Every structure is written in C-alpha cells, then in structure tokens.
Amino acid sequence: MGEPFRTNIHLTLADHLNFAIERSHNGLEYAQPSRWEVKKLYPKEYNAAVNAIRLVYDRLDVLLPKSEETFLTYHFVNAQNVQAKVEETMKMTEVINRIIDVVQYHFQLKLDEESMNYSRFVTHLRFFVLRQLDQNPHVSPEVDATLLDVVKTKYEKAYKAVEKVANLLHKQHGWSLTSDEKLYLTLHIWRVTNLVETE
After folding, report:
1. Which of 74, 92, 100, 105 has the fewest CB atoms inside 10 Å of its own CB, making it the most exposed?
2. pLDDT for 150-173, tens place per residue?
3. Nearest Cα to 70, choosing from 50, 91, 96?
C-alpha cells in the first residue's frame, strides 16, 4: 500500500470500528461523504476499507453502513503519514479534487483515472498537500530558474494551468508554490493531459 502503517493505527482503527459497530447496532449512520472521490484518489486504501468491512461482517455478522468505506479509507491513508490527522486527510482530499478540477477545466478534458500518469499525478499532489499542511513546503534546494523558464516555454499550456492552481491555493489557503513545485507540477500536468503513457 506504499508507506508502512504507523504503530498506533491498530488502536485508532479498533476504536473507530468499535464505535461504528455500536452505531450500526443502534441503526445510526453518518451522512456519506464523497465516496466516489475517495475511491478515485485512494484506490488501494479504499479496497482495504472494503475488505475490512467484509471482515467485520464475516466475523461479527455486523454489516457496517456504506459511509464506513470512506471513513476507513481516511484512516488507512492517515496511517501512512506520521503526523497526519483524519481531518488533514479530508482537507487533502478536498484540495486534490479542486486541483484536478482546475486542470480538467483548463484543458477541457476528463483525465483518465486508470492511467499510470494519473496515479503518479495524484501521488505527487498528496505529498505536495501534506507538505503544505505540515508547513514544510521546501523538500529540496530551489531549481535553477533557467530550468523553470525552459519548462514554461516547452509546456506553456501546462504551466498556465499551474499558475491557475497556484492562484487558487494562495487565495483559498494562503499557500505559495515554490519554483521546484511549479516545475514538477508542470511536468506532471503535461504527462497526465497527454494521451501517450510515459514509463
């Protein structure tokens, strides 16, 4: 599933499942938050959540509500990040979806969610958003400004999409994209908006 789980996931997950089972016994269900978005952005974690619900049913004869697919997915995503909280994972999901919306609108196309480039793009966005939430956007020395100029010229439309994303993130969250983030985001957007898969 990518990153290893933190050790306290077992306690957190057991606590969540206990309350979920109690709610199920009492006929209570939370409103279902954007299940399709979670399934799209975190397919491996979503499948783990579905399997967990099936396991609860097999072992305890308790059928948890559909909304638990989303909540458990958040827990599995959260478990891979040392400092992340479920609330941050929910915010990360919201931000990633907004960025994808901007890119799709800018290029007037629907991204291929099954492609390897889409998977890489989402993975890049996940780590980017986590760094912003941790207030640690700088993970490497700034790239050479001339390199960014080359990318701007070569992938002009993709870079314009990055500028739109940067404006949105600054306006809504007060985040500023570094030169290296603009460079990598431009390359990812160029790849994900081209039909030919890159290995």
Report:
1. 105
2. 999 999 999 999 999 999 999 999
3. 50
152-163 burial, b if ≥16 CB within 10 A, otherwise e?
A: beebeebbebbe
Domain range for 91: 86-192
CATH code, domain carrying 74: 1.10.1790.10
* pLDDT for residue 31: 47
Chain centroid to CA 189:
15
Helices 67-78 and 86-107: crossing angle in degrees, nearest 10, is 100
Q: Across all residues in the chain, what is the average pLDDT? A: 80
Euclidean distance between CA atoms 32 and 42, whole angstroms: 16
Q: Which two tokens stand for residue 52?
A: 């967990």
Element (H, E) at 138: none
Nearest-angstrom CA–CA distance, 179 and 138:
10
164 plus 139 within the same structural domain = yes
**30 is written with which tokens?**
């939370």
Neighbours of 165 (CB within 10 A): 24
